[in-house]
Q: What sequence folds into this?
């Protein structure tokens, strides 16, 4: 395992530095399915497919023990593909090497910092 998602999405420079020192790459999501709120299948589908941050490179947060996700995941995947998105492993989205992470969890190469 080399990827680390900070619990609750809470991170700062200390957390990111500690993860890196342990050999992990910290990743963050930008779409929370809200599956943990147990709002129902339609609400979860709508939350993902109509999220204001949904875009190329988005990482969607789902939880292993979510009650409604198994029932709506097929529709979410079909909806994402219908919008032109491709489902890829997180490993294809993350930057390796020297990067920084902004307040929304997006990675940028350190050279881009200005």
A:
């Amino acid at each position: 395992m080399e990827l680390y998602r900070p619990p609750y999405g809470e991170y700062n420079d200390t957390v990111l530095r500690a993860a890196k020192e342990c050999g992990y790459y910290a990743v963050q999501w930008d779409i929370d399915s809200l599956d943990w709120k147990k709002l129902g299948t339609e609400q979860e589908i709508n939350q993902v497919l109509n999220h204001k941050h949904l875009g190329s490179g988005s990482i969607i947060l789902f939880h292993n023990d979510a009650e409604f996700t198994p029932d709506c995941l097929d529709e979410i995947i079909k909806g994402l593909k219908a919008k032109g998105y491709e489902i890829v492993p997180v490993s294809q989205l993350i930057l390796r090497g020297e990067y920084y992470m902004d307040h929304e969890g997006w990675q940028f190469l350190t050279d881009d910092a200005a």
